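--- STAGE predict ---
source: upstream dedup step, 1 unique chain passed
mode: sequence only
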Amino acid sequence: MSASKVYFADLRTSVKENLPTKIVRLADRMGLDHIVPKRGLVAVKLHFGEKGNTAFVRPTLVRRIVERVKSLGAYPFLTDSNTLYAGTRSDSVSHLRTAIENGFAFSVADAPIIIADGLRGASYESVKISGDLVKTAYIGTDIVEADSIISLAHFKGHELSGFGGAIKNLGMGCASRRGKMVQHSDLSPKVTRKKCIGCGECLEHCSQSAISLKDEKAEIHQAKCIGCGECILICPNGAINVQWNADISLFQKKMVEYTVAVLKGKEGRIACINFLTHISPACDCYGHSDAPIVPDIGILASMDPVAIDQASVDLVNRQKGLDGSCLTSQKEIGQDKFRGLYPKVDWTVQLDYGEKVGLGRRDYELI
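--- STAGE serialize ---
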């Protein structure tokens, strides 16, 4: 089997071609016209950035992809799903407000924003797959119903997966709150009794009647809990939180299987574009962006999410780490920058497993 094609554009520009125009040329080289169906609804999946974060993909660059999709006769919309944790993107109202404040207004990006899993993250489709770990994935309804999907991922470090690229943008980013819970934990949320005041808000919002009050404190019954995570969002005192899964390998494999579910039925209609700019050490879910760990590199495009993430890692590791960043080890050319950030995280798991389940290939040709 031949290597997957990954197309690369550096950040050099001229009076003849600016960066937005260059991005369109990159997408066309990848074959965007074969991915986007005429009159199709195209999900442009990206991360709008938590409020206070500044590393996400620039809205003005997103606009050029939107304009190109429109020129091909399709109807693009910008999308993401609500977060599992309580932040500025945990419900559609706050999520839309944050996206607009971060520059993704229609007047800038030229496309409507649709939060894929509904007002409170409970709008999802159950997608059946034959994964070793996941048999039913809970994917945001509007992702499932879209005719094709374009992943626009800001490539960066991540404390659980080592790095976040196309696979994370799709597998985690398209999952409903219930789907995110499945990936992050095998247990129901936990109640911090010191913070709980016994107000009963979580009881009223639990669709499964899985919460009761005991000694004026909330108690979650794991046998009844379906892991939707709504109680985490609804608690006014931040007393309910995820019981994070300590098995990082398991987390990465579930994320890969969720990516398989996201792309089910969209074979041949998936495009991935990774932005290797402001490569921050942690996820854009934080309300801040630390200094980049290496210089800006360029932009990659591929139809293979495994190959594009492998190429992205390789390009980052070929750089010399920047002084003044949080990277204190593995800073030399050729050294593993993501192991330098997170020594206990084996980021190769998601790529190995992605290849094993047929999501893509680690072997690539850089064009």
